[in-house]
Design a protein that fits this description.
Blueprint: H1 3-13, E1 20-24, H2 26-29, H3 40-45, H4 47-53, E2 57-60, E3 64-65, E4 77-81, H5 88-100, E5 104-110, H6 119-124, E6 138-139, E7 160-163, E8 168-171, H7 186-201, E9 206-210, H8 252-264, E10 270-274, H9 281-288, E11 296-298, H10 310-318, E12 328-332, H11 341-345, H12 351-364, E13 368-372, H13 392-396, H14 404-407, H15 440-444, H16 450-463, H17 465-469, E14 471-477, E15 481-488, E16 491-498, E17 504-505, E18 515-519, E19 526-527, E20 532-535
Parallel strand pairs: 1-2, 1-13, 2-5, 5-9, 9-10, 10-11, 11-12, 12-13
Antiparallel strand pairs: 3-4, 6-8, 7-8, 14-15, 15-16, 16-20, 17-19, 18-20
Helix pairs in contact: 7-8, 12-16
Length: 536
């Protein structure tokens, strides 16, 4: 292979390193047909907005055939589009338009479980000796008829449901309508990889792998030990256990090597794992180490944090040193499962300033930056009344809820339009009461808006080797002051952030540098409340 060809190969393979990825939740992005639910044609019609941000890729949350018990994360056909979102032709049109705009397309893959309406599960539950009898996790009851283990589901209650057809229990780490696939069975791995190939053949550029650490269980069916009481409220039975045996089996990385081999055979594809749990770093590293597992992983370190502190950032960055064999991190401050960061991390009086500082921080970290739709607008969390709740987790745990509905509300496109331009019908969730002032059309017209700042900051990132792929060295992590350096050959940048509401003097050794980007009045000498800068 000549030098030019080798460089071309590396460029294709590594397009994702330092990428900015924009997550789209299809139900809430844009509705093209007036039924109140967003769809693929709506996304295609609005892709110019996403491309104008300068992001590298979009990530689509599930749009597959589903009874929507968990709004698409319960999949009844891994290789088709649910009619509420459109058709395979609509998906192909979306991919074509995205690629024409220079956007890569990533889609969710949910390998942990399927819907109980999937044909695989219908066959599996029909008897103990059918061809797919061992495609799901089945177990006999204990002698007293109780479930095989004490495992609890994420959404509350036992993780086992009795099925009279087989006279056994089946495992579901989430809803009872989401039975767990048995990935210890090579046939299940083969069938799942075939569904991945289906989408790769349609032109997708990679996958975000949902709930990946739930994909394999302990075959010995040992009980989980109790979790120590940390003093934090425990709203779900799931919170009372250490999850040693219902998830996170040591054989998962070997399956990931099969996924990577498949995606690498297509060239230039990207894989990122979602890894949940209180201490996910070890699994994230195991899933991404070397050149034969996944490209990247992200956790809930920021997504469920109740405060943004310098220590939180320091510890997150320290978990991903630039060492041989170490994977590449991805970071998200918001997503479809986590409440809006501006509502979690700061009071209403400071939200506008905080959103600007937060955006610069996300785009200055070493790793990929994942933006959730509306984050570029500074959208707030919407309070959803019980009568309007759609999320099964929120309904089950009302009023002690993760508020997933409150982050999934429709995107505001036009400040003066019905449903803020999301739909001509009644939206599936109510729009935010304060979202009209944050609508796309309002911010387009304001040169100082968060939307336009986001475009500028993404352009800065792309123009900077240090911000794209350089190392990170934390220099200060105090009560409110966060300072780190990003270094690449020929470039060293200092990034300074005031995460508090009181002004801070710039440390003496950092004063006088040439500022190349600043938000909220930051200067080389002073950081006003929630101010931040990047300097040479």
């Amino acid at each position: 292979m000549n030098k030019l060809a080798r460089k071309h190969e590396v460029d294709i393979r590594d397009w994702w390193r330092g990428a900015v990825i924009y997550q789209i939740y299809p139900r809430s992005f844009a509705d093209s047909n007036g039924d109140g639910v967003g769809d693929l044609a709506g996304i295609t019609a609005r892709l110019d907005h996403v491309a104008s941000l300068g992001v590298d890729a979009i990530w689509l949350s599930p749009f597959f055939t589903s009874p929507m018990r968990d709004f698409g994360y319960d999949i009844a056909d891994f290789c088709d589009v649910d009619p509420i979102f459109g058709t395979l032709a609509d998906f192909d049109a979306l991919v074509a338009r995205a690629h024409a705009l220079g956007l890569k397309v990533l889609i969710d893959q949910v390998y942990s479980h399927s819907s109980d309406e999937h044909c695989w599960f219908k066959e599996s539950r029909s008897s103990r000796d059918n061809p797919r009898a061992d495609w799901y996790v089945w177990a006999d009851p204990k002698a007293d008829g109780s479930p095989p283990t004490n495992w609890q589901s994420v959404f509350g209650g036992p993780a086992w449901t009795w099925d009279a057809r087989r006279g056994q229990y089946y495992l579901h780490n989430f809803l009872r309508e989401q039975p767990d696939l048995n990935f210890h069975n090579p046939q299940v791995q083969d069938a799942t990889l075939a569904t991945a190939k289906f989408w790769l053949d349609r032109g997708v550029d990679g996958f975000r792998l949902d709930a990946l650490n739930f994909s394999m269980h302990d075959p010995q069916l040992r009980d989980n030990p109790p979790a120590p009481d940390t003093g934090k409220p425990r709203t779900r039975s799931f919170d009372f256990q250490q999850h040693l045996y219902n998830q996170s089996h040591a054989d998962i990385p070997a399956f990931l090597e099969r996924i990577r081999a498949l995606t690498d055979s297509y060239g230039g594809r990207f894989t990122v794992a979602e890894v949940g749990g209180p201490n996910p770093e070890a699994e994230m590293h195991a899933f991404t180490t070397g050149e034969h597992r996944l490209n990247s992983a992200y956790s809930f370190a920021f997504l469920y944090a109740d405060r943004l502190t310098p220590a939180l950032v320091r510890d997150a960055a320290a978990g991903w040193p630039a060492e041989p064999g170490m994977g590449w991190p991805s970071w998200a401050f918001e997503n479809h499962d986590a409440p809006r960061a501006v509502s979690r991390w700061v009071g209403a009086a400071h939200r506008a300033a905080f959103a600007r500082m937060k955006m610069l921080l996300l785009l200055a970290l070493r790793g990929n930056a994942i933006l959730f739709q509306g984050e570029e607008l500074g959208l707030t969390q919407v309070e959803i009344g019980f009568a309007d709740l759609q999320d099964p987790e929120a309904i089950a745990n009302w009023p002690l809820t993760l508020s997933r509905d409150g982050v999934r509300t429709p995107l505001p496109w036009q400040s003066g339009a019905p449903a803020l331009g999301f739909t001509t019908g009644k939206p599936w969730l109510p729009v935010g009461a304060d979202h009209a002032a944050l609508a796309v059309d309002r911010q387009e017209a304001d040169a100082e808006s968060l939307l336009n700042l986001t475009r500028r900051l993404i352009a800065l990132r792309h123009s900077s080797p240090a911000l794209m792929a350089g190392t990170i060295i934390i220099r200060e992590a105090g009560e409110a002051l966060l300072v780190f350096e990003r270094q690449a050959p020929g470039q060293t940048l200092v990034c300074a952030f005031n995460l508090g509401a009181q002004p801070l003097a710039m440390p003496d050794h950092l004063r006088g540098r040439r500022v190349i980007e600043a938000v909220n009045g930051a200067t080389a000498d002073l950081l006003p409340p929630f101010a931040a800068l990047v300097a040479e």
